[in-house]
Fold Phosphogluconate dehydratase.
Amino acid sequence: MTVKAIEDVTKRLVERSKPTREIYLDRVRAAADAGPHRSSLTCGNLAHGFAACAPTDKERLKGDVVPNIAIVTSYNDMLSAHAPFARFPDLIKQAASEAGAVAQVAGGVPAMCDGVTQGQRGMELSLFSRDVIAMATAIALSHNMFDAAMYLGVCDKIVPGLLIGALTFGHLPAVFVPAGPMPSGLPNNEKVRIRQLYAEGKVGREELLEAESASYHSPGTCTFYGTANSNQMLMEFMGLHLPGSSFINPDTPLRDRLTAEATRQALSITAGGNAFTPVGEMIDEKSIVNAIIGLHATGGSTNHVLHLVAIAKAAGISLTLEDMSDLADCTPLMARVYPNGMADVNHFHAAGGLPYLIGELLRGGHLHEDVSTINGRGLSRMAQEPKLEGDGVKFTPASEVPGNDKIVAKLDAPFAKDGGLKMVSGNLGRAVIKISAVKKEHHVVRAPVRVFDTQNGIREAFEAGELDQDMIAVCRFQGPRANGMPELHKLTPPLGVLQDRGYKVALITDGRMSGASGKVPAAIHLSPEAVDGGSIAKLRDGDMVLLDAVNGILEAEVDAADWAARAPVTLDLADNEYGMGTEIFAAFRRSVSASDAGASVL
């Protein structure tokens, strides 16, 4: 039986979503009834659609009998997480051909890396790239040649964008295929130590680059538990991956065979088989709740507060911050993976990983079992581990015992009683804060603010020695309408240094922090944002502010009459209108929704 608090959130989500969900499902079912049937294409349409195919595939597609899989890929060879996908289309095509079917690369989507653009102008395109990816996915599928789609994506905005696009074509089955993490490199605590020494000027760029290169050193996803690896977790908790496939390293026999097995699974759930599973019907309110539980139980990325709202909306589901906050309150923290522990995702996987956690949470009633997955009905199908067997893959039940209880926990002995993602609100608006990696003594910070309009301003003040005091740094005009809502992860090392010096320190911003945000308390995604006249634009240096993650309070302790009389400051944002491609996204900045509504233009 599911925990009552989880049932309560699910019921109100279903009730709130009824009008939009019913419209969405009617459209999905109508599209499924109408096709895709290649016979509905004209001869000219069809000839264009298979002109580049091998003769055998042309013959198969002419008859409109065999299934055709669309491959939508985020491959590029600059970014480590996506480089392994170079080989995947050939693996998929071979597996499809062996099954008497066809697979075609329907299109590519952009994949940018926040690690490369962190603190740079290019980061201002990062969040908007999610909606571009969704649009590119729609273009790839618009040829109506396909019976199912396989999505090759890993990192921050790529998987959410692909899933939004997939749900737009909700009449097609969808299978997501991960690339896997790179092998473990420099230990995370050593990486953090070098970053903080560099922030203090105690080591130089050469030493920093050497440490970073030892951390990010080969093809595959970065091994910390940020947004990229949180994406993979979500796909398993939502049943869109093969069980246990997220954290198998690239270019290994098991990784290749899982890709072939994913192809066979995609073929089995098309309309031509007996297990038709269109993704629009498969992903429902219970699937979304399961994803949120997974996010909280693993201490996942704060970026998914934005992404899950947008993903749910694409399926006609009306998700709110209150839903996510309430689910956090009743979800125990079950994993310690960096930044809320020293283990990386390879260690996590070896300790039992996602199959163990899904099984343990199901046994305790913390997940909905009665959902569909690409592997059939029932989330317990995801509590399995893949192993090589002959030329294929065998799935065996996951252990019910943690492989390492310092990394994954039992439900009766969690690392924390809640998931650590909180909503805070007050006269400054409302924001979210992730405290799973924050020590308890820092869960409440009351201090005067130092107000900055750029992240560089904070770093410069730190380097000048101006911030050695109890202080809440305010970084405003960083919201989606102001400049695309870049991550502010570069602020973590200097603020971490101040905290280590014994000061009470926190951050408040209408921007984002990285999915790997860690030990410094940060109230982020503050809404309304400064450019919309949000109260963050009323703050002045020296104002006393209370950030209380325990009781959910974010309050400027300013005389009520004085506060009401203050006009929000404005800022000339002309410099945000051009450079590094930002001018192309002016329409996005004008039309983007607020951060608590998913920061989306769709």
